[in-house]
Amino acid sequence: MERENKVEFKVEGRYALFTDPLTKIGGEKCSYHIPTYEALKGVLSSVYWKPTIIWVIDRVRVMKRIRTQTRSAKPVEYGGGNSLAIYTYLADIEYQVQAHFEWNMYRKDMEKDRNENKHFFAAKRMIEKGGRRDIFLGARECQGYVEPCRFGEGKSDYDNYGEIAFDLMFHGFDYPDELGKDELYARFWRPKMIDGKIDFFRPEECSIRKTVRHMKANPPQSIGLREEGLLEGFEELEVLK
Amino acid sequence: MSWMQKLYETYENCQLMIGKVASEKEVPLLPICHSTNKAQIEIVIDHQGTFKRARVVPKDDARTIIPCTEKSSGGRTSGEAPHPLSDKLQYVAKDYKDYDGIKKPYFKSYISNLEAWCKSRFSHPKAKAVLSYVNKGTVVKDLIDKKILIAGENGKLLKKWDGDKKEKPDIFALFQNEGWQADAFIRWEVEIPNDPCSKTWEDETLWKKWIDYYSDTKKEKSLCYVTGKELFMADLHPAKLRNDGDKAKLISSNDWDGFTFRGRFTDTKKHNTYQTCGVGFDVTQKAHSALRWLISRQGYRNGDQAIVAWATSGVEIPDPLADPLDILGEDNLKSDDSDNVSVAQNLAIKLRQKIAGYKVDLGDTSGVVVMGIDSATQGRMAITFYRELTGSEFLERLERWHDACAWIHDYGYNRETKKHIRFVGAPAPKDIAVAAYGSKIDDKLKKATVERLLPCIIDGQQVPIDILDSAVRRACNRTGMEEWEWNKTLSIACALFRKLNEKEGYNMALDPNRKTRDYLYGRLLAIADRLEGHALYKAKEKRDTNAARYMQQFAGRPNKTWRQIYLSLSPYMARLGGAKYYKDMMDEVMCKFDPIEDFTSDKPLSGEFLLGYHCQREKLKPKKGEPASIDDDNLVEE
Lengths: 241, 638
Known about the structure:
The complex is a heterodimer. Chain A is mainly β. Chain A has four helices and twelve strands, in the order E-H-H-E-E-E-H-E-E-E-E-H-E-E-E-E. In chain A, strand 10 and strand 11 form a beta hairpin. Chain A is globular and about 65 Å long. The two termini of chain A are 35 Å apart. In chain B, the strands form five sheets. In chain B, strands 8-9-10-11 form a four-stranded antiparallel β-sheet, with helices on both faces. In chain B, helix 4 packs antiparallel against helix 5 and helix 17 packs antiparallel against helix 22.
């Protein structure tokens, strides 16, 4: 990477649900008070992503005071019918995020696509447009909206608040296609929020990890143009074959 | 979300409190791998396993600390899961079937567990004694011989006592409804020479042996999601958090059939490698034990909802959901003969001092956690509210709440002197809920309202406007409630209005300089009410005043209704001989309306008029020494 390719954006929504794994198994989901690395990576990937790149989230800034709200839900059961559950969401969310991308070295087939300018400017345009795909904050029912911004501008409820330390929290998953090994890992860390800003550890820096299971990466076998039968019926393009 | 971590820390900080029973109602802080259960029968044996004597345990002594396995404490809803040492007759008595026990005898599983424990290197002489006694298989027979359990003529256990009520044996009194004497829970006492502590539920060495034995059976180590270390994993998490019969769990065991969480995880019931989530065995036992103790000791309960606030260092803190009377404690509130207002102000000062006192104990950096849990279904619990604050932040917010949402309340009640106490402070959330929605409030609504008010106290958020509107509307409907209920609703509505309009800085005493329309209208209503009330009292008539009857109309159409009220005042003014005092006061208030359109407009009044009404009424109340008026009688709660 020759040039700095930092992108900054603001994501906001009415609700967010960054589920705590301890509560997820029981079904009574409760949200973390701050977003996980993986959740923000998901937001940015919904805005713009190509298999060539890996997004790395650098920092997030919490703009509004952390409020939780409980809602009752009727989740559908696998065997039919529903059960009742109480979910605890975060209400009224606004975050400013700063991130950059790096090449996914494990995708050798994407070598020719490693064009910094292309991806950087496409990402910037997509942030201005609000994203290519739907944005959601943690869980799918929590719709979010993305806008461009400058990281650090504007007043937040946590300016000059001081430091808040959080206990062990989920950081993200290490998937085989980004890690190079045939295993799925879960990473954990202990975040610190200083004046509303959280500096994320890089995935490699998370020392607390757990092997979840064996998993194989499954990238597509071809990139499309040379497939059998794709150009059938087009006489003038037979030349390309 | 570090609630588990905080509970674990609290447990570690409160190690000295383990096993100490404060009172019958409170659950003690339990050692890990132990649970509590109510025992009905106590059997005393000697160290060789010979039966010595037995007795029926009275209700207030029934709570017993028993060793338990994860399965027996958490998953005993259906199916057998024996406790290791003390258990019901169904498990403990080999001869249960012989005496007509209805349920399936589970003796085999119980005895095999106990034998395994006694054979291991963690056995204890008391456990061995129990084993040798139980092996004899004469539990029920011995109890019948000693007339603890009663057998009928056929030699089988009696279902109900048919004979003379005066001679009813104690054991029958302990069972109601479905239970009968064969459901009795047995606890053991083993008398060993030179051992001062014969009770198995108080012997700490026995606890330790069981803990060591059970921890030794754990083989799997994995990453604990709470501490981040590699620990032995817990299979099941404890239940019984809110009461002894509570089957709901905070961390529910994996739902293998329902796909609550599956997706990328491939664990199955047979091969569970804790892919989704794993918590250390030690950690979860300690955390749940601490939570259970805290809820029992200092939690607010409302049906399924439980809200508890505690300091992780174990130091005492004031209850955020209490009103000032509860915080100050009843001994501080002796009946005071001096002027009402100064008593109330004294209370406010005392409250501030008390909170400051907590500050000294808590220190600046000690953490305070406020947690609320609720359940939608029987088996699971959700964390509906969770906040971590420093000690100073917590106390500061509490003080601010009691300062800003304060008003003069008359509904305090001292149970000892049976007198009503006036206090100055913020109303408790449950009282706010009742004031806003009525005394016949639906349980769910009450829960939800208390939950909505928690952030107002803990986070310093603004009170929701709809609760205020509800309370104001009900306070205007004076004729729909009894006098005491109306007074309570009125003062709570005033407190809420004051909190929502903190910027205006309303005084609790009458503010003669305030010229806002609603305030002045409130004052007028109070003067008219008092005038008529005074006249009626003199005539010894017990009627509602016109002002009281028209209060609701007044709130909606003040100008028109004021005309009606004023016109109806003339006979009463005559009765009082002109009523110059009141007339002057009314003139004074009328002059303050500026511009005059404020007075002539018929726009509805906001809650501010209640403040004006209350303050003026306070001012007009007779001082001590003057004849009491009709108002004071009606302040008593029926």
